[in-house]
Amino acid sequence: MEGNYAIILAAGKGKRMNCNINKQFIKIENKPVLYYSIDTFSKNELIDGIILVCAKDEIEYCRHEIVERYNFTKVLDIVEGGAERQDSVLNALESLKKHKCNIVLIHDGARPFVTNRILNDGIKYCKIYNACACGVKPKDTIKIKNKDGFSIDTVNRENTVLVQTPQCFNYKIILDCHEKILQQHIRVTDDTAVVEYCGNKVFLYAGSYDNIKITTPEDLQLSNRIVNNFKNN
Ligand code: CTP
Ligand code: MG
């Protein structure tokens, strides 16, 4: 029986956070940012195993301070990240070759407030469409501007989505696409772009406004508010 596996990424440098420790290890209510998403994936019965991706010099810290401390037994492996996000993803996809993987959910470790509902929907839509990602409607009007700083157009908000993670894929498709873009030296910022580049369609489903990515210091203040809501859900 082929299973559903998660890749949780924590190998970035967090430059925009401007903090002396990796943003995934900063504490929200006494637990590291990375704890929250691993906990949610671990408790989901449809997830068979988790691959964590960390910077080389943080693998041991992560193993002791997160995986062992919170007894996350679904974490099968901690693999070394790469220079860019897509390199980190590819390392993890390769390490899944030794497991029988059908669906892979790729998630930013910097998004602590992903919910069980979002994971279940991701797996459900991936079974139908082979590729899906969650997201939310922008609340502000979106403009296109020219190089002089003037607005030249307004985007129809109904047709726009702020894409989040998890992004869920048929394992063979996402692995093939990643290998292909590597050979062609294509650079992307997320995995939907990888499969789209190779001609696949990505279904977009509802994420949540609380499923924020912790990127800059003000996101930490927001997280300290969201966490109370999150614990009650
Ligand atoms: N990530 C990764 N490997 C990289 C780059 C990013 O695993 N080489 C992960 C980050 O740890 C994060 C997620 O991808 O969980 C989303 O990336 P982002 O928010 O951009 O994190 P950073 O790249 O760490 O931050 P910044 O861009 O501000 O440096
Ligand atoms: Mg980045």
Automatic annotation (TrEMBL):
Record field: catalytic activity: 2-C-methyl-D-erythritol 4-phosphate + CTP + H(+) = 4-CDP-2-C-methyl-D-erythritol + diphosphate
Keywords: Isoprene biosynthesis, Nucleotidyltransferase, Transferase
Cross-referenced Gene3D superfamilies: Spore Coat Polysaccharide Biosynthesis Protein SpsA, Chain A (3.90.550.10)
CDD domains from the UniProt entry: CDP-ME_synthetase
GO molecular function, one term: 2-C-methyl-D-erythritol 4-phosphate cytidylyltransferase activity
Role this protein plays: Catalyzes the formation of 4-diphosphocytidyl-2-C-methyl-D-erythritol from CTP and 2-C-methyl-D-erythritol 4-phosphate (MEP).
Top-level taxonomic group: Bacteria
Pathway assignment: Isoprenoid biosynthesis; isopentenyl diphosphate biosynthesis via DXP pathway; isopentenyl diphosphate from 1-deoxy-D-xylulose 5-phosphate: step 2/6
Enzyme Commission numbers on file: 2.7.7.60
Site (Positions MEP for the nucleophilic attack) residue list: R157, K213
Site residues by UniProt (Transition state stabilizer): R16, K23
Protein's name according to its UniProt entry: 2-C-methyl-D-erythritol 4-phosphate cytidylyltransferase
NCBIfam families documented for this protein: ispD
Assigned protein family: Belongs to the IspD/TarI cytidylyltransferase family. IspD subfamily.
UniProt-listed HAMAP family: IspD (MF_00108)
Catalytic EC class: transferase
Stored SUPFAM superfamilies: Nucleotide-diphospho-sugar transferases
GO biological process: isopentenyl diphosphate biosynthetic process, methylerythritol 4-phosphate pathway
